[in-house]
Amino acid sequence: MRFSEGTHRLHWATAPxxxxxxxxxxxxxxxxxxxxxxTEDGVVLVLGPAVVARFAIVTIPFAVIAAVAGLWxxxxxRFRIEHDDLVVETGxxxxxxxxxxxxxxxxxxxVRPLITRLFGLTEIRVExxxxxxSEIALRYLGRSAGQQLRAELLARAAGLPGHTPEAPERPLxxxxxxxxxxxxLFKLPVLGTIVLFLFLVGFGIARGEAGVLAGAIPALLGLLxxxxxxxxxxxxxxxxxxxDGLRLRYGLLETRMQTVPPGRVQAVRIVEPLLWxxxxxxxxxxxxxxYTGERQALSSVLLxxxxxxxxxxxxxxxxxxxxxxxxxxxxxxxxxxxxxxGTDDVVFVTRRGLLxxxxxxIAHARAQSVRLTANPVQRLLGLGTVHVDxxxxxxxxxxxxxxxxxxxxxxxATAERARVAxxxxxxxxxxxx
Amino acid sequence: MYPxxxxxxxxxxxxVAAPAYPAxxxxxxxxxxxxxxxxxxxxxxxxxxxxxWGLPVALFxxxxxxxxxxxxxxxxxxxxxxxxxxxxxxxxxxxxxxxGYAERSDDLVVSYGxxxxxxxxxxxxxxxxxxxxxxxxxxxxxxxxxxxxxAAATTDARIPGLPKGEAAQLRDRLAQxxxxxxxxx
Lengths: 433, 185
Known about the structure:
heterodimer; B: alpha+beta; 3-stranded antiparallel sheet
């Protein structure tokens, strides 16, 4: 299928799927209670002819409504690629048309929730810069059609003809399941909670005291949230490089394939909790403009757990020419030996956090603005904080507690380096041209 | 692990940047330029705003306190609000003096802040848009606020208290330079 020509619809199975979802909700809320009969013994489930007739009278119209609604939503959404825009039209009676300039695409996600994996369907999410409503979700497309659309959008966004075959990829790293599980368990708060849980259960069994459940159950729920949820979400994580950007694939139940085109990563953060520094693991978080709110939290991990060298290599992939480890970091005037900042011609690097080291990196070419702040306490001590601003995201690059004079010099030098870097890197809107 | 910063294996300590600024000049204007200040009407904007807040808070708050707790607490309430307004009156003057901006060839530098001092450097090429706003009090006084927006929400570069005409001219100048140097995200 070619998406460059003609108008397209979602996969036809979207209609029955949506109808089925409506019917499930209907059955849970209304339908099931219609099957129940009130007798002297209480509420019972007896399928007499009267009950079935009553159920059918209400359910059949509902089924028709659900089928029409499913069909309607399927018919209502049409999309096509027109020149340099993705055009999405919605509505049958009142038509709305949305033009999405392909050059402003920040990332494309191919999401396959568990239920749609059974039917071979995928969801395509196109992230744009700016605003909470700046995401386009096409749900659902056929599996190969989804891949094809993704490749075509990226090729056109890069400035290549739409029929360019999908760019080849080079695998960078695969996170083994053991490393992921180990990294999730091997954190002070998690280990502390496990110890607490075991202690509470042991105490409860030894003393025959049921009251410990009040502490043990929340602890168990917390563990499930902190270990199981990320394990399912990031299971089978692989990162690969291709000319149209970084490709990340992950998820045990709901699989995601994320493509971040070159120059779209605004800032990265290398996180090393205390216990991870023994085995030398690190996590990499990123700020990509466009991901906001909930999607930011879902899509901000570039690498959930990997050896530090791999993390640094991935950062070098994201910011070409950046060698984070080679940047000399100068300790802050106060704040122990951890807080430090340094820069070279490519990146600005800051490090914070006593127990959990966070190294934050922004390329000069991506810096939005540079700020110097000094609160009253800092001014008494002659200190200031330098912020290199990136779009809203998990990463905040701040060099805390520098000597005021040095801080101002950092601001001036960083502004100058950013100017040179911007002039050199040019516009990344069309990365293949 | 991080290599040690000092001690056993020292690496050549290259400063982050040459400490060319003495600490007391950290917030001074860029070399060879002077800050362009804002209109003195900005002070009156702050003062009128403080009064517009203070009066109802003193009156209605005082009445509520009178109703609940009696005469003396109500008097204390009013005195507290008056003192707060008086402080606001003085801070308005300091705030007016703290604002300054300088248009360099490639970026705009803004400095402000009475308690927390700030200095913001915004490259023209990073500006997404510039807008001019004026609230009711500002309109009455004939001043306006110019605000620069970049893709980063934290940038927060604004220049309040500019005379209307000057604000419009500044916006046009900034918009034009932004257009010339624009480069997307």
